[in-house]
């Protein structure tokens, strides 16, 4: 092992924060950590939420205005986190809203390749009601993600 590498700092340049519009406690803790990191290292912070297609019942899915209202709600949640991050002094914040099936699949297959983060910050308690896989999203992302993951409790 090269000792010079052991002394090099490990700095993340692009941090991706997942927020669940239904789980404020978990998202708030993860937000506090991610913004502290982004502020201290002056790095780009992406804030993402996924609008799950399973969250929309069959009747609502036939009504474009209901889907638009749900999409707008998720966009507003992400935008409120972006505004809080900017208020905390984060200079580079990117709002990200995605739609799709299972949250972890969307994050792993779409968000990470699109945003290209080197660190994912997520809450430990985040559990989406209609997720195909039982259990919290954070620990599942930690197992599957190709990048470093911090699960905030």
Please specify the SSE layout and strand pairing:
Layout: H1 3-6, E1 14-18, H2 24-41, E2 44-52, H3 58-61, H4 64-87, E3 93-100, H5 103-115, E4 119-123, H6 137-144, E5 148-152
Parallel strand pairs: 1-2, 1-4, 2-3, 4-5
Helix pairs in contact: 5-6
Please supply descriptive tags for the structure shown above.
153 residues; alpha/beta; Rossmann fold; five-stranded parallel sheet; 6 helices; 46% helix; 21% strand
3D architecture notes:
The structure is a single chain. The protein has one domain: 3-Layer(aba) Sandwich (Rossmann fold). It contains 6 helices and 5 strands. Helix 2 links the parallel strand 1 and strand 2. Belongs to the universal stress protein A family. This is Universal stress protein. InterPro entries: Rossmann-like_a/b/a_fold, Universal_stress_UspA, UspA. Pfam families: Usp.
What's the quick description here?
The chain is α/β, with parallel strands linked by helices and 153 residues long.
Briefly note the CATH topology name.
Answer: Rossmann fold
Query: What is the succession of H and E elements?
Result: HEHEHHEHEHE
**What is the CATH H-level superfamily?**
HUPs
Basic shape: globular
What about the largest sheet? 5 strands, parallel
CATH hierarchy class name: Alpha Beta
Number of domains: 1
Please bin the fraction of helical residues: 40-55%
Give the second-level CATH assignment, the architecture.
3-Layer(aba) Sandwich
InterPro entries: Rossmann-like_a/b/a_fold, Universal_stress_UspA, UspA
Protein name: Universal stress protein
Domain UspA: 12-153
Pfam family, one: Usp
């Amino acid at each position: 092992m090269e000792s010079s590498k052991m002394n090099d700092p490990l700095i993340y340049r692009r941090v991706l924060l997942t927020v669940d519009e239904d789980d404020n406690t978990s998202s708030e803790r993860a937000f506090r950590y991610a913004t502290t990191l982004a502020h201290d290292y002056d790095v780009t912070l992406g804030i993402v939420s996924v609008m799950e297609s399973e969250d929309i019942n069959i009747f609502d899915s036939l009504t474009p205005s209901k889907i638009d209202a749900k999409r707008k709600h998720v966009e507003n949640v992400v935008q409120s986190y972006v505004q809080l991050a900017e208020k905390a002094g984060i200079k580079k914040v990117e709002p990200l809203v995605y739609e799709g099936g299972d949250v972890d699949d969307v994050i792993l297959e779409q968000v990470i390749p699109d945003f290209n983060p080197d660190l994912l910050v997520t809450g430990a308690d985040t559990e989406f009601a209609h997720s195909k896989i039982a259990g919290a999203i954070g620990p599942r992302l930690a197992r599957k993600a190709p990048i470093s993951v911090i699960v905030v409790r």
